Amino acid sequence: MKNEVLDMELTVTPSALSCFKGEWGIAAGETVRVFVRYVSGGELPFAFGITRDTPIDAAVTTVADQVTFYMESKDVWFLEGRSLRIDCLGEDIVFQFS
User: Fold this and answer.
1) Global model pTM greater than 0.90
2) CB neighbour burial string for 41-65, b if at least 16 within 10 angstroms, e if fewer
3) Helix (H, G, I), strand (E, B) or coil at 55
4) pLDDT digits (tens, 9 = 90+) for 59-86
5) Please, are residues 9 and 81 in contact by the beta-carbon 8 Å criterion?
6) Checking CA distances to 9, which of 25, 48, 58, 87 falls within 20 to 30 Å?
7) Mean of pLDDT over the chain
8) How far apart are CA 98 and CA 56, in angstroms?
């Protein structure tokens, strides 16, 4: 689902969804929050994190096979108007901007 106000989109690929269901045990009806976290003082000090959570002020959401993925309003600054695609590479969840 695209959030027209923020002009951002969150996409979850089928392989990422398979990883969430297989490795994480995520089931239909659950919600997964994508958030921004501080990782270092280097060139890229912030990165995305993911966790099971309940939305409080979801700004960007998408539903994939009855699993809701979302970002809270306080975290969308990191997207800067771009779209985020969540994919799986091997056994790792990867985040791709577009």
Assistant:
1) no
2) eeeeeeebebeeeeeeebbbebebe
3) coil
4) 999 999 999 999 999 998 888 778 999 9
5) no
6) 25
7) 87
8) 26
- The two tokens of residue 38 are 């501080």
Q: 33: how many CB neighbours lie within 10 A of its CB? A: 19
Alpha helices in the chain (DSSP H): 14-23
* Half-sphere CA count of 39, side-chain side, radius 13 A: 11
Question: Which tokens go with 82?
Answer: 């771009």
Question: Are the beta carbons of 57 and 96 closer than 8 angstroms?
Answer: no
Tokens of 97: 């901007």
Using CA atoms, how far apart are residues 73 and 3, in angstroms rounded to an integer? 12
Residues 6+ positions from 40 with CB-CB distance below 8 Å: none
